[in-house]
Amino acid sequence: MTTRPVVHVLDDDEAVRLAIASLLQSVGLESRTHGSTQAFLEAERPDVESCLVLDVRLPGTSGLDLQELLAERGVELPVILVTGHGDIPMSVRGMKAGAVDFLSKPFREQDLLDAVARALAIDRARRAERHGLEALRARYATLSPRERQVMARVAAGLLNKQVAGELGISEITVKIHRGAAMRKMDARTLPDLVRMQDAIAAAPARPADDTLV
User: Fold this and answer.
1) What is the pTM of this model?
2) How far apart are CA 5 and CA 92, in angstroms?
3) pLDDT digits (tens, 9 = 90+) for 7-33
């Protein structure tokens, strides 16, 4: 299984696919080429830094339809749209749907490489954020139910005395649970604990997986 970044190339024109793959290989980037939307959906997608170079006009399911399908399934794959002459309105729609960039054929090789670099940087940052959140959730899972209750109320700005009153426990017990929560969460200060609680509360539910089909 590769650990290098992968650029997926989806275009129904084989010559275009091969030309883009060759260009990416010349700068040390690994690519996976696909001739149709279905071929892309059925292909293995390694869990590594990735992006998708996507032709807007494809037979059957269009590039824009695929982009919307990926979004519906929670697949966060930065998309670079490739369009032909006269497809600008479709590109605008794609950009509004979250595409990183769009290029009109024929495009300069450097423009494509720059767009790929931006897309991979976006995916790299997203993965780092996701891994950070997963580590935070793992630490949060080690807290007892009472420690979570105390953490939530302390993060909401309640004083120890107020937390004790709400939970029906002593103020000293609140301090003990608060200290345990900070230690388990690796929070050096109270503001750190507040930020962690906010991040956990705001985070979307963990997706089941990134399977496309």
Assistant:
1) 0.69
2) 27
3) 999 999 899 999 999 999 999 999 999
What are the beta bridge partners of residue 163?
Answer: none
Residue 16: φ, ψ to 5°: -65, -45
* Residue 116 burial class via C-beta count within 10 angstroms: exposed 0-12, middle 13-18, buried 19 and up: buried
What does the pLDDT look like over 79-124, one tens digit per residue?
998 887 656 666 666 666 668 888 888 889 999 999 999 999 999 9
The sign one gets for the Cα dihedral 124, 125, 129, 130 is negative
Residue 205 and residue 198 in contact, taking contact as beta carbons nearer than 8 Å: no
The per-residue DSSP string of 20-87 comes to HHHHHHHTT-EEEEESSHHHHHHS---SSSEEEEEES--SSS-HHHHHHHHHHTT----EEEEE-TT-
